[in-house]
Write a structure and sequence with these properties.
Layout (H helix, E strand, L loop, with lengths): L10 H25 L2 H6 L15 H16 L7 H16 L1 H9 L1 H9 L11
């Protein structure tokens, strides 16, 4: 069944989109980990709400989602894109039950306000 999803035409669009997604993912990861120094902030028990964290709560997860999306696009197989929804669902459940609970306990109302303003993984859809 997987071979039936292989594109015969329009492969170049998938490949270009894949390159764009991988570059975007790498950029998000660099911004979250290196520029914002997430590891240092976690050990200092500081909530980061600026920079890339002002547009997405989990830029590292977003980065990997974009990178994996790019890799799936390189396969030029539209059936494999179903894996994106599986990955997103898994990440959402995992984050809600682990990281978000810990952050709510750690930062209380400050984190609650942040939750209302910034989306979990999709950076371009702003909450009001």
């Amino acid at each position: 069944y997987i071979y039936q999803g292989k594109l015969r035409q329009g492969k170049i669009f998938f490949i270009i989109a894949g390159i764009f997604m991988i570059i975007l993912g790498i950029y998000l990861w660099i911004q979250a980990v290196i520029v914002q120094k997430i590891n240092k902030k976690v050990t200092e028990k500081k909530l980061i709400t600026t920079g890339v964290y002002s547009i997405v709560r989990n830029p590292v997860y977003s980065a990997f989602t974009f990178i994996f999306t790019g890799l799936l696009l390189f396969t030029t197989n539209y059936i494999l894109l179903i894996l994106l929804f599986v990955f997103w669902t898994f990440l959402t459940i995992l984050m809600k039950n682990t990281e978000e609970k810990w952050l709510k306990n750690e930062f209380g109302e400050e984190y609650e306000l942040y939750l209302k303003k910034v989306n979990r993984v999709i950076p371009w859809i702003k909450r009001k």
